[in-house]
User: What shape does this take?
Amino acid sequence: MKSVQSTASLTVAKFGGTSVADFQAMLRCANIIKSNASNRLIVVSASAGVTNYLVRLSHKNVLVTEQKLIVDNIRAIQLNITQHLSIDVEVELNKEINSLLDELLQHALTQSLQYSTKTTDAILAFGEQLSSRIFAEVLQSIDVAGEYFNVKQVMKTNSLHGKAVVDIKQLSKQCEHLLVPKLKDKVIVTQGFIGQDSLGNTTTLGRGGSDYSAALLAEAVHGDNLSIWTDVVGIFTTDPRITEQARAIKEISFGEAAEMATFGAKILHPATLIPAMRCNIPVFVGSSKEPEMGGTQIKQKVASNPTYRSIALRREQTLVTVKSPAMLHASGFLAKVFSILAKHELSVDLITTSEISVALTFDNPSGSTQSLITNTVVAELEQLCDVSVEHGLSLVAVIGNGLTCTKGIGQSIFETINDVNIRLICHGASANNICFLVNESDANLVVEKLHNSLFS
Ligand code: ASP
Ligand code: MG
Assistant: This one.
C-alpha cells in the first residue's frame, strides 16, 4: 500500500450522502482523493437515505417489526457497497457492520421503552459511523492508505442533543494532539455530523451538519483548502430544477455564499462558512460525479460583485405573528418575546414589526428531528399576546451586492411578480439580500420569473 507523499498543502475534503451512496459513487470519490495528494483529511456523510431511516428509527413508538425493517434497509444499502470489495475485506467488514447494526437495534429498543434526545443522537450517529468505516476500505482498495478516525475523539460539544454546539478550543487542542500528526503521511477518513459531550455521550450538529464539521476540522488542523463534494457542479444562480436558465457560479464571495446557504440553497449547511471566513480558508464546491466540470470557488475577494448574484428558495417556512395592544408605546415587549424563543432555542430568520405586532419566520422543514413551534411555545407566547401561526409559505431571497444602496431594486424585483401575493418583505439589514415570503404554490413561478428577468 502506498503511503501518501506529504505535500505542503492540506485540503479537507467532505463527501456528501449521494457521493457515498453506493460503491461506484465511493470509488469516484476515492479517485478524486487519489488524484490530489493534498486531500488528506476526508469527512463523510452517511450514505444517501440512511440518516432519513435513522430519523424514523429514533421516533417515539416505533414498533419492533418496523425497527427491524429499517435496520435491514440500512444493512442492504451498506452491504451493497461492501460486496464490491475483495472477499476477505468484505467478510471482515460485514462482521463489523452487522455488529454495529445490532448495537443500533439495541438503541432503538431503548428508545421505544424510554424516549430521549440522547438516544436519538446515539441512533443518528450510526449513518456516518458506517459510511466512514466502509469508505476507508474503498480507499485502500485503490491503494490509498486510508485510515479510519473516530471524530468523537476531537469533536467535543455541549450536551444540546440534536443541535450540539462545538467547543472550538477543545476541538483545536484535541486535533493538535490526535489528528494533525497523522495527516503528515496518511489519508484520514472521519465522520461529519457527530460529536461527543463531556459525559461521553454522542451528540449531533443538526441535519446537514457534515459540511459544518468539515469546515470546523479544516480550521482546527490549519487546512489550506476545504472542498465540499456533492452532486451538483457548484453553486447555481438558482435551483436548476426550477429553471433551466440557472447556471453555475464560478466565483462567489464568502458574504454572498453565506447568505445563500442561510436562505435555502441546500448546497451548503448554513454554518459552514463561519469557520472558513474566520480563517480565510477558500471553499470549493463541486460534483463528485463530474469532477472534471469544475465547480464554485468561495473566497474572500472575488473579481466581480454583481448587483444580482442568485436567488435562493426555502420552502416550509413557519410564520408566527404576535400581536399585543400593550406594545403601543411600550418597551420591553420584544425582549419578552425573544426570551421565550431563546429559552426554547428557537432561531428566528426574518422579522418585521409594526407598532403593535411582530412577524417572525422559522425554518422547520420536514425531515427535521424536532418540530419547532410546539404547543408549549405558543402557550407561553399567549401569556403575553395574541399568537397566530401560519404554514405553507416559502422564503425567496434575492442575493447580491449593494442591495441597500442601488436605485430601482424594488421595482426590478416586485414589478416582475406583481401578480402574486407577497406575505412579508425584509430589506435593509443586509446589503447582500432582499427576502420575502410567498405562498408555497407560487414559489417556483416567482423564482423562475425573477431569474429570467434579473439574470437574462
Ligand atoms: N447525515 C446527516 C444528514 O443527512 C448529516 C449530513 O449529511 O450532513 O443530515
Ligand atoms: Mg449536505
